[in-house]
Amino acid sequence: MAIPAMPASPPAIPAGGRIQDLSGATMGTTWSCRFVGSAASAQTLRRTIPLALDRVIAQMSPWEDQSDTSRFNRLSLDQWQEMPRELGEVMAGALRIAQESDGAYDPTMGALIDLWGFGPSGPRTAPPPPDEIARLHRASGWRQLEFDAGTRRLRRDDRGPVNLCGIAKGFAVDLVAETLLELGIHNALVEIGGELRGHGVKPDGSPWWVEIDRPAQVAAGVAAEPMLVALHGLAIATSGCERGFAYGAQHFSHTLDPRTGWPIANGMVTATVLHRSCMEADAYATALMVLGPDAGTDFAVKHELAAMIRFRSGDAITERITPALDAMLA
Length: 330
Fold this sequence. Notes:
Elements: E1 18-26, E2 29-37, H1 39-60, H2 68-73, E3 81-82, H3 85-100, H4 110-115, H5 130-138, E4 145-148, E5 153-156, H6 168-182, E6 188-192, E7 195-199, E8 209-211, E9 228-230, E10 234-240, E11 244-247, E12 250-253, E13 268-275, H7 278-302, E14 306-313, E15 316-321, H8 323-329
Antiparallel strand pairs: 1-2, 2-6, 3-5, 4-5, 6-7, 7-10, 8-9, 10-13, 11-12, 13-14, 14-15
Helix pairs in contact: 1-6, 3-7, 6-7
């Protein structure tokens, strides 16, 4: 799925039509779509969007026993499996970002995600045994995967099962947005589980404004001032650490560090990334959470990511904005 280049000039104000709203459930969360068009277009999209989302689930869900990803995870080592087009695109992106981030994002964390209670096996209330964490960590690692982009074939040489939950939802946003464009709908805002991508403008010529997620400072209970960005040919994804479970005085985040096999404990609160591709924004946000405040900021600046990083510094929450995002807000 090709991501279009950033428009060189603002789009034309839509002639006629009004904002249509659609929504539904998918991937354990909800989806919504706001677009400028007719009631007839809305009827078409009520059928088309769920079909596109079902393709993502059928190819990438670890909860579906017969998904392409689940079937790959049951293959013998060193056996090739041909990927459908969408899954092949996601796998190529996942491995590229894994390489760029030196494994801070890693698509082979399936067994550890499940062990920590964040996968299909269901939740847990206490951390798993350290020796079991170490055993599964030794079997994980993105370098065990070999992907032939020309034939869309994938194989592995170790037992780390593939889990694409850190990138598939962003891809699903892109897929729905691209589906709308193919149907001639050029003014729309697509959202799945808080990740969004927008094109064009509203009937009054205003852009699709969205607010960057900035959780309240825990100690003071004070929310930061809203920060709005216009999604004109852009997507936004935020990764956080609020999900997880408490054990004694510790909170174990659902975001695991692929380099250790343990939940992150680096003070990170959220990482938000704006990008033309929601798939890439999704994976990069996860990588920034794992890298932590300093290495994450350095990585985002090096790769010219428009990003906001929020982390705990004592009792306060510190916020860093990269030059690429600052230029958008100026």
